[in-house]
Amino acid sequence: MIQRFRPYLHYLRQQRGLLIVAILCGIIAGVASGFGLPYMVKQVFPVIFAQNAAPLTPWELTLVTLWIPAVFLVRGVATYLNTYLIQRVGTQVLESIRLDFFRKLQVLPLSFFQKNSTGDLLSRGLADANQLQVTLTTVANEIIRSPASLIGSIGIVSYIAYTEQGVAFVLVTLAVIPLSVLPIRYVGKKLIKRAGRIQAELGGVTQIFSENLSATKEVRAFSLEDREVARFGRASQTLIRAQMKFVKYEKALTPLIEIVSAVGIAFTLLYAYKVHLAQETFIVLITALYASYEPIKKLGSLNNELKRGLGALDRLEEILRAPVAIVDAPDARPLARAQGALAFETVGFSYQTGELVLNEVSVLIPAGTVCALVGPSGAGKSSFANLVPRFFDPIAGRVTLDGHDLRSLRLADLRRNIAVVSQDPVLFNDTIYHNLLIARPAASRADIEAAAHAAYAHEFILSFPAGYDTLVGERGARLSGGQKQRLALARAFLRNAPVLILDEATSALDSDSEAAIQLALKHLVVGKTVLIIAHRFSTIRDASMIIVFEAGEIAATGTHTHLYATNPLYRSLYDRQQGAA
Ligand SMILES: Nc1ncnc2c1ncn2[C@@H]1O[C@H](COP(=O)(O)OP(=O)(O)O)[C@@H](O)[C@H]1O
Ligand SMILES: [Mg+2]
Known about the structure:
Number of strands: 10
Largest sheet: 6 strands, mixed
CATH topology of the largest domain: ABC transporter transmembrane region fold
Bound molecules: adenosine-5'-diphosphate, magnesium ion
Number of domains: 2
Distance between the termini: 69 Å
Radius of gyration: 36 Å
Structural class: alpha/beta
CATH superfamily of the largest domain: ABC transporter type 1, transmembrane domain
Mean pLDDT: 87
Low-confidence stretches: none
Helix content: 55-70%
Strand order of the largest sheet: 6-7-8-3-9-10
CATH architecture of the largest domain: Up-down Bundle
Oligomer: single chain
CATH class of the largest domain: Mainly Alpha
């Protein structure tokens, strides 16, 4: 079982010195418990309670009783140093695991997040990491001390029993120790499955929690309050049932071990009576025996705790080991500033569901072309655009930028050449200024203000009392949809990338800002290769190239006049829009 933690041992390497001190202290503490306590009893009791002996001088009395605080002092200091140091090392290992987990989340492909819920990932990153920390702490307290203490106490039991009565007596007194390992094994087997179950159910609860918090408006609008509470209650019940199943076995362990040890002590007592053992010797023996059951009990619960920790580690590792599908090829080619020529060559694409979302799509988009993607909802426009920054990779064919297969380019270089403005831009819970700065970290204050100007955002930003230092709230909650979109456009201006993707980037704008934004867009698109998906044909009509999508295929390409004359789908889409307007 300990082997499961082996891959993480390399985290310990920098802390080797501390670890060695911790282990030494653990051994001292263990021996002080297992050997020191019974030995102390052996030194003190016979002297104090000796019948028909000469009375002790005050000096002798002090010396004898000093044994007690001395043993406890050594044990106390060593225990403290041992647990403190091990925990310090352990939490640092945990910190590395948690950081690796978070780092991994940054590079996993987008498709991963469509399979795994936010709640589940949150629960793994927080609750499972936390469980691992609890495990580490518990393990830290016992992993060295208890075995050392067990060996110490077995040592002294054997020594006393041997010097008093010989080998047979040693065997009788120690016979029960291996027996008390049986409950540990039995209970441990029951626990491993249940431990993983608890963490999974905890994931379920977290998932409902996080989903609910992201749908606060829907819950009120559709009066889902009772439904949500019931749903949460059910998940919470399931979690409790899983926890209680674990506790049922976990808590049986200590009593089981104690019962087995009691039987052992009874046998020792019987045998002691038979061989006429002296009372002092018996007290020492019982102390030593008790001192040996204690670490067994602790090792037993340690075993339980390890099972829990392993359950948590499994769930963390599932993510840590998840394949990162979209990575740099080993011989990835660097790319400075791209020209921006895009080509799709018989591209096929599907999401996890397996249905073909794009089928044999081939098209050339020369550098500097403003290209509009039109078609019914669900036809594949967004999927098509998402292949360009490699949010997903095609399953057939290839996409090229300036003639290079996207998969042969360095991912960071590729993405630096692309600006994406989506329908629902996300802002970080920070100031407007910092939210714009992410588009180009080297930008000056003047650059930022110029970009905001260009995106018609400067005015509304200045209308806030704190101006550019206004905090936008979680995901930009304190701004309107149109304001967020204008900030997203300002980011695109700042980024000034040769390829620009606008996916319904103007859909949240009211007609006032729409007119202004159209102007802004005219400036933004100059000299760039632009993929623009828009509901409003006012944007589309001016595009130098239009691609019409229908059910995952390209139905036609051309200019507005050409398509309006030749493509019935395009004409009906266009006429319907004009009619609506
Ligand atoms: N993450 C996804 N997982 C599975 N199917 C998806 C996903 N995103 C989109 N789809 C499906 O792919 C098809 C094309 O979607 P999309 O490219 O978003 O269309 P459009 O942008 O033209 O409205 C739709 O049938 C949609 O249901
Ligand atoms: Mg779309």
